[in-house]
Amino acid sequence: MKPLKLAVVSAGLSQPSSTRLLGDRLAEATERLLAGRDRPVEVRVVELRGLAVDIANNLVTGFPGATLREAIEAVTEADGVIAVTPIFTASYSGLFKSFFDVIGNTALAGKPVLIAATGGTARHSLALEHALRPLFSYLRALVVPTAVYAASEDWGTGGDARTDGLATRVTRAAGELADLMAGRPAAPEPVETVIPFEQQLAALRP
């Protein structure tokens, strides 16, 4: 069976990054759950930190460079996307938003997306619902019900009587993404359309 494609978009700025770590944990859980259904997965990680200049140039010129184009294709051709951002000033990072600004408005339509974020304190967790979920709803993606937020104190904890631990939330969200991906046919291989030179020349004639 043709492998499903899973793209992980990480907007972490530091190295190592807790944002990338959360993305990796979500990807591993999703891959494991799909493997249990005999659905192989190819995971592609898109680190926005190294694409910042390319993204800015694309916003100014309207044309992506080769590296940015490959990153955009990894996301738009995926069967599922995990999008993770650090929270700055109660919202997603500017780099995160700029990347999705250069992707076509219809490119994520119907695509399963798991949203996640990291931050210093739990009080920023609502940014997932008032910032990230509306963004991907506008792009007409299928956003999974469970969004995963990881504050500094969440790493290595098991939760308490009122809240689930991070590992539980990761597993639940990954399960929801795996359900949506398993229900989709694998994304077709891109086919490059070649327009004959005569046809291109004819289009330029008055």
TrEMBL record:
Name of the protein: FMN reductase
NCBIfam families xrefs: LLM_duo_CE1759
PANTHER family: FMN REDUCTASE (NADPH)
The keyword Flavoprotein appears for this protein: yes
Positions of the NADPH-dependent FMN reductase-like domain: 5-155
Keywords: Flavoprotein, FMN, Oxidoreductase
Gene3D superfamilies linked: 3.40.50.360
